[in-house]
Structure formats: structure tokens, C-alpha cells
Amino acid sequence: MSVRHVTKAGRGMAVVAIAAGLVFGLSACGGEEKPQQDKPASTKSSSTAGGSGGNTQPQSQEPATVLAVLKGQEGLELSVESAKRDGGGFITVSGKLRNVADATAVIPPQVNGNETEVIKHGSSLGGATLVDSVGKKRYYVLRDTDGRPLTTTGLDSLAAGAWTSVFMQFPAPPPTTTEVSLQLPTFDPATIKLS
Can you give the pLDDT of all 195 residues of the chain as single tens digits? Predict the structure, then answer.
């Protein structure tokens, strides 16, 4: 046998060994897994948020704690589920914006606020403020270095019965302040406890 034939035979055996290894590896990863019987199947219902994104948000299985509900026009409601102080010196207020009416509700442009720097970045909740009545201060939604509000953006409309998760970030009042009033244009204000 010449060296050339030995080399070809060696390459052929290497190819066969690699192919056998791949077949074995794929069969070992096969679908022999047993379905998990002890976990209940999660049921999710979803609502569609209208507007430019048309996002679908899954409903939570556990009811969220609601700190306050701000009622707006055309069946819009903002339910505040948390108002947490963060280590960076700001407060994040989060919750759900819902349309409880029987028809599509357009998000009023007033919720954007009236500052040119915020408005030029599109629809948002940039008009929201926190009012500390004890400290006699009003806190506006924070903005990044380009002037974009640190809040949910792209809100145009909500279909009947739909909701979408929202958030807003504000500078933190002093640690002694435990309650503030959340105000959003065209919505009734509401008092929320800070955590």
C-alpha cells in the first residue's frame, strides 16, 4: 500500500468516526424527556395595546397590589402598582394603563407634558409629576442626556378592554417623605405611598 492510500483510508475512518459521534450526540439529546406533571399549566390571557406598537401584554396570574387608581377621560385608568425608591436617588412608579370603556380610547396628548424637549421625542407620560405637599416641592419626570423622558413612550391609543404596562422615573424626595400625590394631565390626582 502506498502512503497515499493509507492517508485516504485514515481520512475516511476519521469522517466515519465524526459522523458516528454526531449521530450519537443527537440521539442522546432526543425527546425522551418526560413532561412535567407536577407543575400546573399556566394560563395566560392577553390584551392588545393599540397604537404604533400594538403590544400584547400577558395578564398576571396573581392580582397585583394597587396603590392608587387615577381616572382619566374616555374610560382610561392608570393603576399604580409600585412606587419604589432606587439606590440611584430616584423613584420608579409603575403600573398599568387600562381602557375600561367599550370603545378605543385615544391617549390624550396632554399626558406628554408641554416641554418642547420632551414633546419632540414623541408620545409619552412625560407630563407626570409627583407633588410632595409636606416639603412643598413638585418633581418632574427625569430625562436622559438627549432630553428623552424616562417613562413609557409610544402610547397612542388603547383598544376597548386593553391595557399596557407603564413606568415613570422621578427624582426621589427626602427619605422622610412617605406619601406623594401623583399627577398626570387629564387624570384625577391620587396619593401614593413610597416604598
Answer: 555 554 555 555 555 555 555 444 444 455 444 444 443 343 333 333 444 444 444 444 455 799 999 999 999 999 999 999 998 899 999 999 999 999 999 999 999 998 888 888 899 999 999 999 988 999 999 999 998 999 999 999 999 999 999 999 999 999 999 999 999 999 999 999 998
Instruction: Please report which residue ranges of the chain form alpha helices under DSSP H.
Output: 3-28, 116-119
DSSP 75: G
**Residue 182 grid cell:** 401623583
**Cβ neighbour number for residue 179 with a 10 Å cutoff:** 13
Out of 3.30.1370.60, 2.120.10.30, 2.60.40.10, 2.30.30.90, the CATH code matching 49-193 is 2.60.40.10
* Of 152, 6, 181, 128, nearest in space to 194 by CA: 181
Supply the pTM of this predicted model.
Answer: 0.67
